Amino acid sequence: MLRSVPIHLKVALACCCCPLVAAAVAQEPPRFNIGFADTLLFNDSLRYNAFGYEGPAPLFVQAWFPIERPSATQLTYQQLQERRLTGPLQRVHQELLLRSDSAFIAYDLRYAFNSDSTIDYAPFTEQQVMDSLFASRSRASRASWPERFERPVVVYHHGSQGFSDENTAMAENFANLGFVFLSCNFHWPLEDRPYGHPIAWEPDRNSIRTMLRFARRISNGNKVFYIGHSWGAQEGWCTLYEPGLADAFISLETTMEWKTDTAEVRDKWPDMLEAITMHSYSMPILVVADSDGEPPYPMFTGVRGDLRYLDPKRSFGHESYTSAYLLRLHGQGRFPVPDAKDMWMQNAIYVSLFHEMLSFLRVQAGLSALPSIPDMEDPFLRYPAPADGGPGR
To answer: What is the pTM of this model?
Structure first.
């Protein structure tokens, strides 16, 4: 999908790298201004003890949602991370941000696409580049937290060493098109442990349940969906076989999709392998991965559930599923972007994928599917084929 003419890519960058391209006008859904708010939940089943806090693990929730009228100022990416906290939780949140910023530099700034070569930002440091990018304006304005949203809700789970606002563009696009988008930290800062080290070495089902049950409460009878990337997708497979948690699931590259050695998978991903072989899934699932092959993926062929597959035809990086990775494109003209051509293509696939995800979830929410984007080559390998009931163009 995407790239009939270069102007589409320019529009994508102007709107935080990755908005839905308005190539199809007919039946296009209504658009809204984007509100942003935060709140605090707790996983009562997981104890956390660090940096002066001891108690249930805190979930620092961020929400993007449709509003009619924005405030005068759109928030910067840095301001999306700010929140009013007192006592020990303030320190916990500060430590969390320090670690997530380090992860942003390591995964989203340091290396050129598909390369081990580091990017030379001289005379600027990586920290200065990050600070400059985070000073850019998002498309969201701070808004009051509604008592009920009256809209379908998406819960997003970041990957290992990811962070809650790693997919701000995805969040904004869903809110712009009538969905509520919730994200939170599924990591906690631990003293003398690397970022991403779990409190307990087991699937964190209770944090996911906490978020999805909260989503169910605020949805006021609308559908609730789950999107997970990498480890976040794995956690989805390990949890969402439980009835009633989610009405649809989008799995973004667990990294198991190209595996054929069951013994290796059992050694590295035992919980997920057990889940997909021992349980069934009652909700529709969209499975996405760049496997350099063709779906369905070997380890998923026996899964009991309604699975549809998308595999990008062009190389699509594991970090490219997040808009944080694409944020470097905002630095063009200010900082070196030696892989700009490749990054624009990653942006194009990201936008195409968002169109597919939005259309998939609109149907599950009882809304009309989006019209296909005309006059462009389908960027995905699909299974089942559209004529057989798979995701159509």
So the answer is: 0.92
